[in-house]
Amino acid sequence: MADMIPLRPASATRPAVVHDEPAGHTCTCGEAEAAGYPELDARQLPHAIRHAAIFGALDSVLPGGGLVLVAPHDPLPLLAQLEERHPGRFTVSYLSRGPEAWKLQLTR
User: For a 10 Å CB count at each end of the chain, is N or C smaller?
Assistant: First the structure.
């Protein structure tokens, strides 16, 4: 059996660390946020989990932030689901419309 390591709150094991990272980036990966909104290319996601992955990404967008979504088709069903889940939370702007990819900016 593998060694078990007890989990303790971070405050119990070490002092809090303050990073000069952009708002919303609270992990300790050491990567910097790129300028502009992050881009999610949904064409690369398996169809079975595509909407769930997009909603997960959108759930992490803070007020004033946004996401650029690249989709293999006009994502009208996804946008309807998004409006149903979060009425009025996001503003959608088309950056390009097909034929191989639709690119949308979703701003919160």
Answer: N
